[in-house]
Amino acid sequence: MKTPKPISPFRLSSLLRSEKDPTLAFNIFKNPNPDLKPPGKPFRYSPLSYDLIITKLGRARMFDEMEQVLHQLKNDARLAPEEIIFCNAMKFYGRACLHERARQLFEEMPEYRCQRTVKSVNSLLNALLLSEKFDEMKQVFFGMEKYARPDACTYNILIRACCLSGCLDDASNLFDEMQRKGVKPNAVTFGTLIQGLCMEMKVKEAFKLKADMVRLHGLCPSPCTYSMMIKGLCRIGELSLAIRLKEEMVGNKMKVDSSTYSTLISGLFNVGRQDKALGIFEEMALNECKPGTVTYNAMINGFCKVKDFEAAYRVLEDMAKKQCKPDVISYNILIGGLCKEGKWSEANDLFEDMPRQGCKPDVVSYRLLFDGLCGGLQFKEAAFIMDEMIFKGYVPHCASIHKFVSGLCQKADMKLLLMVLNSLAKANAIDQDAWLMVISKVCQEDKLSISSEILDALML
Asked: Where, in residue numbers, are the PPR repeats (predicted)?
């Protein structure tokens, strides 16, 4: 029988690159030549093979297997692995919020015969940032002079941490420090600071920083920076400025995305400028920006706010025509709007039509309709919806149950009340206050036979 040709290190790299299943790739890596008899010399893994398998296992979050490979790499004295391998591994740890493993790997890098530079420091800082370990980030930063000098990426990560934790003064101090140390801020630096200012509603400061970015540093804001500023302006009702920024983006030949358009549409509806909102929606097509579900939902929500339900229905129909399937949020917005205006029959029809349109009602759909029916004193319909909710494993809000039970008590519909109490008791969805309300009402009516049935339900 012909002896199979052994797999070479180069061939192993090719196999690892093409193998989609990380488990199979790991098994190939562990035993590249399973059929080779008698066993030859130990397999000489290439640095590329280690890099490929660590990347594949890290993306699949197979960290125990990844650490087996790292341990093997540590003991493979022939190799001095490149820093990028450890940067990638720390990146995967960071995404999984395994900051302790990232820090341990960083500390052990010299044992792998690999020198730590600013790249691995930045990878560790980013892993800590994703786990929101801001105090540990400070420790790493203060001690990094042993390995390297901080660069713009280092400061960008630290500034982002300060912005996320609401420490804008610290972010500003870091910005000043990097310039004092001769580290030139880049577009990401300014974008991160502007985003932090917008999150704290400090739009004037954000505009000043944007002006300095262009005038003093010769940098152009990114579409993401513009988008954050537009969202911040919409939150404080400065729609004219937001539209002006959008026009500036178009003038700079930047692509305005659907998220930015959706923000503008929602903001315009909030201040009663639905005609302008419609204009913005129509502009999307002119700028070759296809509206997504979020944009359509912003339109539906806007029309519901101004009580133009016919227009909201038209948007829902238009979504289907434009091959943008309405989601459960689309229906919930409309159901909530109809219920708020006392249009319970229309809300119920829309609710029942959802499954036929390929969209299953969720717990929010049921609760919106149930609350609307209770608010309109449609207790029989509300009881039917409540039973369906319980069957599907949902329950109304506690406050809604109180309102429902109180309404049934006031209406003195004891037969329906008993049915509702039994359903709620079986689902363990009624609290002591609701029971006391019912008992008090029954005692006032002096209906002892009903009292015993309520007691039976309470015993459940």
From this structure: 151-185, 186-221, 222-256, 257-291, 292-326, 327-361, 362-396
Which tokens belong to 422? 């039994």
Looking at the 3D structure of the chain, how many domains does it have?
3
- Are residues 307 and 241 located together in one domain of the fold? yes
pLDDT digits 0-9 by tens, 13-60: 999 999 999 999 999 999 888 766 555 678 889 999 999 999 999 999
- pLDDT for the residue 203: 85
The pair phi, psi for residue 32, each rounded to 5°, is -65, -30
Give the model's pLDDT for residue 448. 44
> 367, 396, 425: which is the final residue of a domain?
396
- Cα separation, 305 vs 307, whole angstroms: 5
Dihedral sign (CA 418, 420, 426, 431): negative
Residue 336: which of 357, 359, 358, 307 has the closest Cα?
Answer: 307
- CB distance 159 to 197 below 8 Å: no
Please answer whether residues 395 and 428 qualify as being in contact, where contact means their C-beta atoms are separated by less than 8 angstroms: no
Question: Which residues, in sequence order, are CB contacts of 400 under 8 Å at separation 6+?
Answer: 367, 370, 371, 374
Residues 6+ apart with CB under 8 A from 246: 226, 230, 256, 260, 264
Q: Is residue 244 part of a domain?
A: yes
Q: What is the pLDDT of residue 1?
A: 44
pTM over 0.85: no
Same domain assignment for residues 357 and 423: no
Q: Cα(66)–Cα(128) distance, rounded to whole angstroms?
A: 20
State whether 332 and 305 are in the same domain. Answer: no
The whole-angstrom separation of Cα 241 and Cα 258 is 19
Q: Can you list the residues of the chain whose pLDDT is less than 70?
A: 1-4, 35-40, 412, 429, 434-435, 437-460
- The answer to whether the bond into 38 is cis (omega within 30° of 0) is yes
Structural domain including 259 reads 237-311
316 CB neighbour count, 10 Å cutoff: 21
Same domain, yes or no: 369 and 402: no
CA distance 135 to 161: 10
Count CB-CB contacts under 10 A for residue 106. 22
Angstrom distance (rounded) from CA 332 to CA 314: 16
Instruction: Report d(CA 277, CA 291) in Å as an integer.
Output: 13
